[in-house]
Amino acid sequence: MKALRLILSTIISLTFLALFLEGFHSSLPAAILAGGLSFLGGMLMFSPDRKTKETKKTQLKPPKNRKKVIPAPGDDEFVCEGVTRGELKRIVREGKEQVNRIEETGLKIMNHTVRVDVLEICSIANDIFDNFLKDPRDIKESRRFLLYYLDTTERIVSKYYELSNTSYLSDEAKKTLKDVESTLVLIKDSFRNHLKKLTENDVLDLEAEIRVLQNTIKREGI
């Protein structure tokens, strides 16, 4: 590597020497000075240390447009058994982002009935995530909704949109579209029933608290 630096620097130096003598008709001392300076410049330019420093400097630059989630005070506190405040916010944030993706795809579907079904599914899903914020304990009852139903719904809606935009559909493809349309109705009913179950749990919890309060009042004679 060092020999290559010398060769390249020498070539640059001789080039400048000839340029000053023949091209600019400079004096020999001036040409020699220009050649010497160009030789030093070439040695610095091809220095491996310089390139290494520039490479390291480039590598140390932080990537652009990367959003860093900074934990807020209290995020490590448990809002219910097994779930911290930070985890609750992450579950709701990521879940609503997924629902937004499903909604964006659903809005592009030409079939009006299917489009309405997809938007209703998204509305119910958002209500479920809003319910998590009110009662984080419902997350435990919603593992299947979070880990299976939502992902499956996103894949089905995306595939339906792609297939429905195909210029030519075989009989088998048309049958598949019909199956998806009926499946979306089942998903909508499933989401609605799940939200109803979570709401009923909240009502039962409230009723239990009321009974405890009433018994306490009676016992203490307040």
From TrEMBL:
The keyword Membrane is assigned to this record: yes
Keywords of the record: Membrane, Transmembrane, Transmembrane helix
Domain of life where this protein originates: Bacteria
Keyword Transmembrane helix on entry: yes
Transmembrane portions of the chain: 30-47
Name under which the protein is recorded: 5-bromo-4-chloroindolyl phosphate hydrolysis protein
Organism: Thermoclostridium stercorarium subsp. leptospartum DSM 9219
